[in-house]
Write a structure and sequence with these properties.
mainly alpha; Four Helix Bundle (Hemerythrin (Met), subunit A); two-stranded antiparallel sheet; 6 helices; 2% strand
């Protein structure tokens, strides 16, 4: 007997997928977007949705569980971490001092991810707010070659870095979720 949950998926047509394509909230049907800016935004949007999908249907204890010891990473910690990172990226663009950290000292985003509904609700609200704020600042810079902020980072580099961050953490979320309840990613 094992403590590991059995692998499963909600998909019926393609049992190796998270959900069947006709139930997938990510816009994967039809032609891909035209142009580099639209393509980058589409990838970012889909990775953001993927992260939220990995967290669906779990209670606060499951979301906060560090299911891959000795790592302190949890799904709730990932939500909090990405809210913190969105805020940090905005600091790269805006003049002046960076905004204060949301959760405090280094690793507080993961360490403070405790199994309380209020913490879960706050994490979702923080992430949505910080994503919207960073998106709004970047919308003011439609030229992907424009260099912004103290370090003169190209807008393109910032968008690609955001995609990379979400993609990497979606891979972590796949493993965390599978360890929690056996649900496999796609």
């Amino acid at each position: 007997m094992s403590d590991q949950p059995g692998r499963w998926s909600q998909a019926n047509i393609y049992p190796d997928m998270w959900v069947d394509p006709d139930e997938d909230p990510r816009d994967n049907a039809g032609a891909s977007p035209d142009g580099e800016p639209a393509t980058l935004r589409d990838y970012l949007t889909n990775y953001r949705l993927t992260l939220l999908m990995k967290c669906e249907g779990l209670d606060p204890e499951q979301l906060a569980r560090r299911s891959v010891p000795p790592s302190t990473m949890s799904l709730l910690g990932l939500l909090r971490h990405l809210a913190e990172v969105e805020r940090d990226w905005r600091g790269w663009i805006l003049p002046g001092d960076p905004p204060p950290r949301l959760y405090g000292a280094r690793d507080a985003d993961f360490d403070g991810a405790v199994a309380e509904q209020a913490v879960v609700d706050a994490a979702h609200a923080d992430l949505a707010r910080e994503q919207a704020a960073t998106d709004a600042v970047l919308a003011e810079h439609p030229d992907l070659s424009e260099r912004v902020g103290r370090d003169a980072i190209a807008v393109r580099e910032l968008l690609v870095h955001r995609i990379e961050e979400y993609a990497r953490h979606c891979g972590h979320a796949d493993l965390l979720r599978e360890c929690l309840d056996g649900r496999v990613g796609q």
